[in-house]
């Protein structure tokens, strides 16, 4: 099981316990991440004088950064939509990782197979068969059609 550290902070807005629990609930699904020590940074902010709520979510794992951002008129809706985006991006990244690992395993198995040498007595020539080929001259091989 991976350990997921979640850091939630507010910018121009107070992070209430309800907002914090809601963000942890929605983004906690990523706790199934195949990473050892990942961090999720969540920034909740209120934009200027407009009634717009912005949520920025960043998943950090070593060298991998997956980011989602959403702006709506409701903070809870922004959290929902950012969580959906992050889950989608995370799923694509995980599939890409699985594909790379499968490809690497296949290449390793092919190299192992090629490196193994079969003993010479394993392959014995039973017979050699000749196939007669009818030879044509250049003029017979090239035909020109006229319409």
UniProtKB/TrEMBL annotation:
Q: Where is the signal peptide?
A: none
Q: Which InterPro entries match?
A: HPF/YfiA_ribosome-assoc (IPR050574), RHF-like (IPR036567), RHF/RaiA (IPR003489)
Q: Name one GO molecular function term.
A: ribosomal small subunit binding
Q: Name one Pfam family in it.
A: Ribosomal_S30AE
Can you cite an annotated GO cellular component? cytosolic small ribosomal subunit
Q: Does the keyword Transport apply?
A: no
Q: What is this protein called?
A: Ribosome-associated translation inhibitor RaiA
* Keyword Cell division set for record: no
Identify the NCBIfam families for this entry: yfiA (TIGR00741)
GO biological process, alphabetically ordered: negative regulation of translational elongation
